[in-house]
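Q: Here's a chain of 188 amino acids. Please give me its 3D structure as C-alpha cells.
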Amino acid sequence: METSFRTKNALLSETDRDLIEQKLDHLSHLADGASRVEVSFYEEKNPRIAERDICEVTMHTRWAVIRAKGSGTGLMEAADKVVEKLEHRIEKLKGKTIVRSHPHHRAIKSTGVVFDGDGEEEIALLGGARIVKEKSFSIPPMRPEDAALQMQLLSHDFYFFTNDETGRPAIVYQREDGHVGLIDAKGS
C-alpha cells in the first residue's frame, strides 16, 4: 500500500506517522486491500474553533474511493476520528456488497475516479457569479445504485457518472427528504 502524507501548518513526528500507517494498514486489510492512501494534516487558524487540527484521508481500493475528515485538539486525536469514520464506512460498504451478492445484481466495479487537476481559474459570468475552481476527471460507467453508494462513501451531495444502462452522462444527488435522486441526460 502506497501511503503519502501532506502537512500544512502542522508538525507530524515520525513516531506518529508510523502509528497512523499501522492503523491505515489495518483498515486496508478490512477493505480487502487499498492500493493508495493519501493523508493530509492541517491546522485551522480560526481561534474560535476548539478542534483546530484537521486530518483528511482518501483511500483508493479496487472497488471504491473512500474519503473521511476529522478534527481534534491534536493531530493524533483528529487521525483517530478519521480512522473510526473510515472503519464505519468500510463496514457499511461491506454490508451493501453482501446485499448486492444476489444473482440479479453485479458486483461493485472499480470506479476509476481520478482527479486530474486542481486548478483555480476565475471566469467572470453574468450576474457577478464566478467559477473559482475547476476539476476534470474520468467519468466511470456504472449503475445508478453504485453511483449512489460512491456518493455516500465520498460524503458528497451529488455524484457525476456515465449511466451503464443508458450509456449517457447522469448525476445522482442527495435530496432534502433523505432519498437519492437521479438526473439522466437525454439523447439529442
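Q: Can you summarize the key feature?
A: The helical segments are 14-30, 75-99, 144-153.
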